[in-house]
C-alpha cells in the first residue's frame, strides 16, 4: 500500500493571492483528496448592514472586493432600486455598463498575470500587469480611484464622463487591443504554457452544472450561462454572445477569459456609440420596504445580492453569494487525480477571490 | 508546436523606454479627479456639523462652539460624501494624498 501524506496548502503560500486553506491528501505525488477550510478573513460586512444607513451602505458593498468593487456596489444599488421602484436614467445605465466592463478587463488581465506567475512565467506576468496598469489609468481618470471606483450610488452614478473622453477611451482600448493580443497569444500558443494547461483539471459539463459552478469556470465546460444576458444596466441593449468552450480543462478556462477581454472591448465600443444624453441620477426619497434578489455577472461569475428591508433606514438582512463561493465545489472536484505541482494552477483557474467569499 | 512566441515582445521591450516611471526623480502626476484627500476652506465653513454626521467612517469631528473642524486622515476613505452634503460647499477633494504619518493624530482646522 502506498503511504498517505497530508500536506497543508495555504492560507499563506507564494502563489496564492488570497488566503484559502486546503489540506491535500497525497499518495506519492498524486493528490487524492482536497479538504478546504475558509474563514480566515471574515469581516462581518453583512452584519454591518444593520448599523449603516441604506444609502451609505454602498461604500461598504464596494469594499467587499478589491477587484470587482464597482460591480458589488452596483449590484447592491440594483437591489435597493428594485425594492424602491426607482427608475435609473438611461445614461447612468450605460455608464454602469462601461465601468463593469472596464472592471472585467482589468480583472481578467490580473488573473492572466497571476496564472503566469503560478506556472512560473515571470516575464509574462510582468507584461500582463503592464497592460492592466493602462486600464487602471483609464479607471482612475474617470472615477478618481484605481480599484475602489466610488462611482455607484443608489439612483444612478456619482459622476459623468463627457462624450469626448468616452470616445478617447474607446480609441485607446482599440490601441491596447493589439498589445493585449500580443501577450495573450503567448498564453494560447506557447508550447510551455500549453503544456501546463491542456488536459489539466478537467471539469465535465455535467459536473460543472451539478456543482453549481458560475462564470468562466462554468462556460469553459460548455454551459451557456451569463448573467449579463438578464439585461440589467444597459446589457439588454448590447449585442454580445456568451463565450463558451467545450473542453473544460485549464486551457479552456484561460481561453474563455482571453476571449472575454476582447468581447469587453467590443461591448465598451458599443456603449460609447450608443451613449444617450441626459441626467445621471434621480433623487431618492423614502425608505425601502420589501425584498429582492439582484443577480449580476462579475469577472469571476454570477454574484447574488439578497436584500430585505422593513421600511426603516436600515436593512434587515443582506446576503451576498459571491462567485468564488460557488466555484469552490468545482475546484474540489478537479483537484483529485492531479499531481501536487498542478494544484497552484488549478486553484488559480477558478480565479479565487477569498476576501469576497468570506466578506 | 510553437516556441519563442514571446520573442517579439521581449525584443520590443529591450529597446523601448521602461514601462514604469522614474519615481522619485520624476514626481508622480495624478489625474485631475483622483480622490486624494479632503481640503477645507475654513473661511466659508459655518461649523454646522452635517459633514461629520454623514461621514460613513466617522472621520470628522466638528465643534460649533470652538469653531473647530477636525479630520482623522487615517479613517477617511476619500469617498466624498462630506463634499456632497456640505451646505456651504467649502469642502473639496484634492488629487494629491495626505502626507504619511508617524504617529496617529488628527488634523484640526479652525476659524477662531
Ligand atoms: S458641512 Fe460644510 S459648513 Fe457644515 S461643518 Fe461641514 S464643512 Fe463646515
Ligand atoms: S471623504 Fe468620506 S470618509 Fe472622508 S471625511 Fe469625507 S465623508 Fe468622511
Query: Average pLDDT across residues of chain B?
Result: 84
Stated plainly, the CATH topology of chain A is called: Cytochrome-c3 Hydrogenase, chain B
Taken from the alpha-carbon principal axes, the silhouette of chain A is globular
Taking the sheet with the most strands of chain B, its summary is: 3 strands, antiparallel
Share of residues in helices of chain A = 40-55%
Q: For the terminal residues of chain A, how far apart are their CA atoms?
A: 43 Å
The strand order across the widest sheet of chain B is: 2-3-5
Number of helices of chain B: 3
Bound molecules: iron/sulfur cluster
Tell me the series of helices and strands of chain A, N- to C-terminal: EEEHHHHEEHHHHHEEEHHH
Which CATH architecture of the domain at 36-112 in chain B?
2-Layer Sandwich
Multimeric organization: heterodimer
> Structural class of chain A, please?
alpha+beta
Question: Would you list the SSEs of chain B in sequence order as H and E?
Answer: HEHEEHEE
Largest sheet of chain A: 3 strands, antiparallel
Key structural traits:
heterodimer, A: 359 residues, alpha+beta, Cytochrome-c3 Hydrogenase, chain B, 3-stranded antiparallel beta sheet, 47% helix, B: 112 residues, Alpha-Beta Plaits, two-stranded antiparallel sheet, binds iron/sulfur cluster
Amino acid at each position: 500500500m502506498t503511504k498517505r501524506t497530508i500536506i497543508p496548502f495555504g492560507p499563506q503560500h507564494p502563489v496564492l493571492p488570497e488566503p484559502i486553506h486546503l489540506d491535500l491528501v497525497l499518495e506519492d505525488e498524486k493528490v487524492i483528496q482536497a479538504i478546504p477550510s475558509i474563514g480566515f478573513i471574515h469581516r462581518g460586512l453583512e452584519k454591518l448592514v444593520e448599523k449603516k444607513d441604506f444609502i451609505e451602505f454602498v461604500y461598504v458593498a464596494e469594499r467587499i472586493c478589491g477587484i470587482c468593487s464597482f460591480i458589488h456596489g452596483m449590484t447592491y444599488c440594483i437591489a435597493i432600486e428594485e425594492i424602491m421602484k426607482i427608475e435609473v436614467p438611461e445614461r447612468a445605465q450605460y455608464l454602469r455598463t462601461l465601468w463593469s466592463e472596464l472592471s472585467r478587463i482589468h480583472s481578467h488581465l490580473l488573473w492572466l498575470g497571476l496564472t503566469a506567475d503560478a506556472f512560473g512565467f515571470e516575464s509574462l506576468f510582468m507584461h500582463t500587469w503592464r497592460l492592466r496598469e493602462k486600464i487602471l489609468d483609464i479607471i482612475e481618470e474617470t472615477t478618481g480611484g484605481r480599484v475602489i471606483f466610488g462611482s455607484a450610488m443608489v439612483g444612478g452614478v456619482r459622476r459623468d464622463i463627457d462624450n469626448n473622453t468616452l470616445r478617447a477611451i474607446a480609441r485607446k482600448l482599440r490601441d491596447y487591443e493589439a498589445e493585449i493580443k500580443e501577450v495573450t497569444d503567448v498564453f494560447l500558443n506557447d508550447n510551455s504554457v500549453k503544456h501546463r494547461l491542456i488536459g489539466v483539471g478537467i471539469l465535465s459539463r455535467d459536473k460543472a452544472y451539478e456543482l453549481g459552478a458560475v462564470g468562466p469556470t462554468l462556460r469553459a465546460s460548455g454551459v451557456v450561462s451569463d448573467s449579463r444576458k438578464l439585461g440589467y444596466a444597459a446589457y439588454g441593449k448590447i449585442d454580445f454572445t456568451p463565450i463558451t468552450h467545450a473542453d473544460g480543462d485549464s486551457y479552456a478556462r484561460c481561453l474563455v477569459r482571453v476571449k472575454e477581454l476582447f468581447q469587453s472591448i467590443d461591448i465598451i465600443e458599443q456603449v460609447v456609440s450608443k451613449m444617450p444624453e441626459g441626467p445621471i441620477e434621480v433623487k431618492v426619497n423614502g425608505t425601502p420596504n420589501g425584498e429582492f434578489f439582484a443577480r449580476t455577472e462579475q469577472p469571476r461569475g454570477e454574484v447574488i445580492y439578497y436584500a430585505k428591508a422593513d421600511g426603516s433606514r436600515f436593512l434587515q438582512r443582506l446576503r451576498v453569494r459571491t462567485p468564488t463561493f460557488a466555484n469552490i465545489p468545482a475546484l474540489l472536484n478537479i483537484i483529485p487525480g492531479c499531481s501536487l505541482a498542478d494544484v497552484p494552477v488549478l486553484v488559480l483557474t477558478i480565479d479565487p477571490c477569498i476576501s469576497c467569499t468570506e466578506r | 508546436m510553437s516556441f519563442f512566441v514571446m520573442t517579439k515582445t521581449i525584443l520590443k521591450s529591450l529597446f523601448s523606454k521602461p514601462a514604469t516611471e522614474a519615481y522619485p526623480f520624476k514626481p508622480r502626476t495624478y489625474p485631475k479627479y483622483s480622490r486624494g484627500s479632503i481640503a477645507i476652506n475654513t473661511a466659508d465653513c459655518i461649523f454646522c456639523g452635517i459633514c461629520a454626521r454623514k461621514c460613513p467612517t466617522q472621520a470628522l469631528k466638528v465643534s460649533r462652539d470652538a469653531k473647530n473642524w477636525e479630520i482623522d486622515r487615517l479613517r477617511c476613505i476619500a469617498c466624498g460624501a462630506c463634499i456632497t452634503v456640505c451646505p456651504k460647499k467649502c469642502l473639496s477633494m484634492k488629487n494629491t494624498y495626505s502626507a504619511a504619518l508617524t504617529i496617529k493624530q488628527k488634523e484640526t482646522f479652525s476659524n477662531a
